[in-house]
Amino acid sequence: MAHLTLNKTKLKDNFEFLKKTFNDSSVAWGVVSKLLCGNRLFLQELINLGVDEIHDSRISNLAMVKKLNQEVQTVYIKPVSKKNVGKMIEFADVSLNSELETIHWISEEAVLQNKKHKIIIMVETGDLREGVMGEHLLDFYSDVFKLPNIEIIGLGTNLNCLNGVMPSTDKLIQLSLYKQIIELKFNKKIPWVSAGTSVTIPLMLTHQLPKGINHFRVGETLFFGVDLFEEKVIEGMHGDVFELHTEIIEMQEKPLLPVGNLAANPQGEVAEIDESLYGQTSYRAIVDVGLLDVDPKYLAPTDETIEVLGASSDMLIMNLGKNPNEYKVGDVLTFDLKYMGALSLLNSNYIDKTVISS
After folding, report:
1. What residue stretches are annotated with the Alanine racemase N-terminal domain (predicted)?
2. Non-local CB neighbours of 11 within 8 Å, separated by 6+ positions
3. Which of 44, 249, 256, 311 is least surrounded, with the fewest CB atoms within 10 Å of its CB?
4. How many angstroms separate the CA atoms of 102 and 195, rounded?
5. CA 146 centroid distance within chain
6. Where exactly are the structural domains of the chain?
């Protein structure tokens, strides 16, 4: 059966790299765990590393974190729907917010639950997902800080999540200035300026991070070691914390081209024919994973001599060429993953998940 592995030794190396990087810059940070889809085994590995702040976009995943360790500070990182405010207050210590009416609901529920709920006000800096427009921020803050059982602990922003707008020193300085203006006007301290996510880390590594930025929310770079500016693994980190292992369930030498009248397949695709390949054959392997589990474009075989040809709902078709490595039925093919591939696999009930160490 296809299974996904998390290498805890490589995860620890990545964690220690980031921990030192943030400590050297006097920046606090939390781990975004939404990739793990609430998997108890993998969340426990995070907690074992000493992670004391976990962010997620699913309340049920934060509930699992609290079940594993009540002392971990939990952060809900998307706008909460009205019907879920109660559960969010129960399991999240902090939430990211940019909608005034929602914060009123949060305040009311926090009073009912006799809890002080902390919030980070999200500010729009150009990517046009969630966030208060800068010109409305002072009025917004004025309304929020008066609410009972609400503590504003930061200003934050998201970049590169919708339209691909990249973080820049100028945008982050702007966010820091908003904090200074609010503190002067209202005589209130805002502890955090949460600059964003993994995409902002390269600015820190190249010493371009403004001094006012003192909090990050990191997922992808922890799990994939990636510099999202240059789309490459950061030196000293690992890009293969996760790997997918699949079993060959059929192995045949077959024509390179399909035979017969062609129509759209169930995915709406029509095969393109290169007539120069008529008469040629290659070994094809079918492995036990398919579109129901992952989009093949997010998979990269660790054996660079083979390639993904396509997939149906439950099977992935591989081209082994002349099969120089003499693969056979029952052998395992291993794949490195991109973020969205790992996310799909972790969300699939049909893929086993295990922890390994190097």
Report:
1. 8-224
2. 45, 49, 222, 223, 238, 241
3. 249
4. 23
5. 34
6. 7-229, 242-356
Statement: 7-229 belongs to CATH 1.20.1250.20: no
Do residues 246 and 335 make contact, with C-beta atoms less than 8 angstroms apart?
yes
Catalytic residue positions? Answer: 34
Amino acid letter at 75? V
DSSP class per residue in 19-57: HHHHHHTT-EEEEE-GGGTT-HHHHHHHHHTT--EEEES
Residues 285 and 276: beta-carbon distance below 8 Å: no
| pTM score, whole prediction | 0.94
Strand partners, 218: 31
Distance CA 198, CA 167 (A): 10
Q: Under a CB-based contact definition with an 8 Å cutoff, are residues 356 and 8 in contact?
A: yes
Domain 242-356 is in which class? mainly beta
Q: What is the pLDDT of residues 225-251, one digit of tens each?
A: 999 999 999 999 999 999 999 999 999
